Amino acid sequence: VIIQLGFGLFIGFVESRYVWHSSDYCQTWTIVRDDVALGTTNRHNHFAVFDPYANNRMYYIAHGGSGINLSYSDDMGVTWEDVDNTYTDDIGAVNQVQCTTAVPTPAGLVMGDDDMWAGMFILSRDTGKIEKLCRGPDQPGANLGVKSFATYAQYDKNRELVYTVWNQAEAGGVMYITATDGCSANVIYVHP
């Protein structure tokens, strides 16, 4: 089972409204989500993932004109339900997660944000709500804190850690990797 989404750039967003699914090793593809048909104006996809801990529930997040939408489907994309993707930040303000990676774990869907200053989050299986796992290594003024976003993540079942790759979207920016156990995120590698 494979899912693919079109990742739209800020100019044009050509074909970035779709999520496709293949169950025959990429021989055929079926559109399982079309944001235009659903009435949203989102054209910037961030992730789509199957959750094997929730009967292969499909999660998807995008943003654009309709805000930031985190949705799931339990019927292979025939219908979609929105998840309340709000959380309360360190100073008590209510914000929305805008995650670019998602990794299913037994505890929930662990997500790396589009802005590491916001941090890492989990959609908890216990509460069904977004919870902030950690702010991560980036604090205001730290070199790694400027324009970092999650680009890839993987769950290590043996160590029960989620490894997330972060990139800085600026001239001279670095790539670094964090490991999180659900309580904190520590930088374990910085690419020179």
Separate helix tally: 0
- How would you sum up the major sheet? 4 strands, antiparallel
- Cross-sheet strand order for the largest sheet: 4-5-6-7
Number of strand segments = 17
Mean pLDDT across all amino acids: 79
Class by alpha and beta content: mainly beta
Strand content is: over 45%
Which overall shape is indicated by the principal axes computed on the Cα atoms?
Answer: globular
Written as H for each helix and E for each strand, in order along the chain, the element string is EEEEEEEEEEEEEEEEE
Separation, N- and C-terminal Cα atoms: 36 Å
The low-pLDDT segments are 138-143
**Helical content (DSSP H or I, runs of 4+):** under 10%
Radius of gyration: 16 Å
State the oligomer: single chain
